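Case study 2.
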Amino acid sequence: MAVRYINVRSNVEMFSPVVRATGNVAVIGTAATGTDNKVVPVTSPAAAAVLFGPATVPDPADATRQVPNSSLTAALVALFGQSPGPAQVFAVKANGGATGAVSDPSAALTAIEALDVQFVVLAKTPLTTASGAATGAVGRLAAHVTDVSERGGEGRERMGVAMLAKDSADPAVVTGALASDRMIYIAHRSDEDAAAAVTGTVAGHPPHVSMLLKQVAITSAPFAVADIDKLNQSEQFGNPPKGNGVNWLDHPALIPGGGVYLGEGYTGNPAKMKFIDVQRTVDDVTFKLKARLIRAIGSLRISRSGLRALVVQLEAVLDPLVRGEVIEGYAIDVPVLDLLDADPAALTPAQLKVIQDAQNDRVAEVLVSVDYAGAVHRIALTLNFT
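Prediction:
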């Protein structure tokens, strides 16, 4: 037998952080068939028709006409019709008739609480004074996405999508608890399910992509200029509007070929996280950091080497985001590490107590600042002719 001067036994424990989806959707609506409040994965419009009945059927009085048959299926057809579209879709049949709006989604919303979805939409359910009340369908949706995002399980952060009534250009209906940066509102002039269509469009793009001027596969007549000013506040040169928390479907004349596009990318609360991509990116980056750091819990020490290893793990998440131009840059500050790096003899009693408290309580405070540069939404161009 040969002499082995060095024996090596390799133990490979490679760690892959959990990956959070960014484009999964839950659709709640009334349907012709199906089991109430049961979550069902749906892969295509054809599958939706089998599960919940066709979106339309021939009119018994006139076979040349089609009449509505299943609001849930119609919403799923609009959702799947977007390109790019959602990653994974779940549907829940709510109590009620086959073609009406959702009146009480409480049980259905409870059924989807634990789902890995980032968007929730109610089929054929416009935001009105009644539906926007705390006990109304859209009011319950807004409460659901806020509650689950703040107090649900890890990675359950989500946004709700709702449409105004057809032809409505009054943003005043978005008030109180409805004015949430967890909600997306859309004004439209379509007979299709605009909320479902917009949900499919938003879900199809990465979180950091602005929703401004993203195409929506839907038929919707254009709004008058006065209507858009009411929805958005009047535009002034060099001063972009504050917005009223409601987006609209537009027909930009400068885009070749025409089509229907999102006129803005607002959340329902312009005073907080004003844009959809900001809220989605915060959710995505937050989850990435948590998923990377979970292995540090119970393993890394509150010491110079342990906290430096923690910083490296944070950099492993943030550096690819910089290279991918998702964020512009970042800064990481670990106050206890700064004290541990200093000369112990030069530390004050208060500083030594900070180290002792951190080690005794086993809590390491980390401050991460991220520079997120949003997309251009307005250009103020001055032409000087001489």
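Residues 297-371 form one domain.
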